[in-house]
Model the fold of this input.
Amino acid sequence: MKKTLLLIGFLQFSMAQAQLQRPAMNAELSAYFKFVNLAARALHADNFPVAAQNYEEAFRHKPVPFFADLKNAFIVNSKNGFHERNLVLLKFMLRDKGMDSAQVFSQLPRRIFDASGLDFVRNFREKPKPGTEIFKKAFYNLYESYQADLNTMLPHDHTAERFFDLYTKYGFPSEEKIGCLNENGEEIWSGINNIVNGITYLKGQTAEKMMKILQTEFENGNIPPSVLANCYDYAHQNLSSRKAEYYFQNELLAMTGGKVYRPFIYYTDSVMQVINTNRVSIGLDSFHIVQKQYIAGKFCTAPECSDASKSTIQTVLYISNPQLPYGFVKAAFEKEKQDMNWYLMDVQSIASRCNCGNKQY
Done:
């Protein structure tokens, strides 16, 4: 598989002259992502009342919001004392996202609930939608098969055939159809991302079919933009003829030798224009804004923060940061006559300037 590194010739075409052909989002979905991004910016600035207002406005534009946004809105409302607003969010989680009370409390600690919220979760009795459990079981059987294929180094043709069959029968494995959490209590998107990447790695018509499904389901509001960007970036890396409209740079950091670096790409105006044009087209905020938000959530330096992923508000999710062999990276930089230190990031300093302690819950 190819790596998105400047040191092995990542940029093999002129982005300055690339003609982007990203399809436009419908107005409602575009508005949803606009206000979610404004909420994330407000959170980064510790303006929790404005963040709550933006989440509330965002949820007017999507019948069933994504779980990650529901979770953040719940935390923000709790910080503001807007507990009555959280009952609606809990209903989405329990009814539309297939969560039970144990899963809700695994994602949202009891300490941020008021009495009415705790009672609502404990007494909720609506049954999951028909067919959800059947599809969920079929999908996770497919995922186990995919993992077995990886272990035996078999090609992904079998996975592709089964995925397309499931898609024809049930539709896309969205949060509403298979639940937002897997049996290990993890969000479903990592597993879906892996399967999609395995299918697009096959290239040719199979990969194109998968990418068309992704775009369609994104337009239907079934895929978070960060997951879509991951899949497009992976396809971009592995295409023999790369497409500028597939390039989102959703790997926000690179890690090697125990240190954190900027992604190893050439930072030119034309490259960043392509990246940010693509990102905005699917509802993602611009690269450098999101990078700072991600660092604030992942590398929190507050004394009370023992595990940032479980106690710090995370506005940037589903990001893959490659762990690269230091010797390989160093040798490649020497070959390209580039300064590796220019890419080095002091993430602890960046996180501390973001007042990450204020984002604890």
Summary: The chain has 17 helices and two strands.
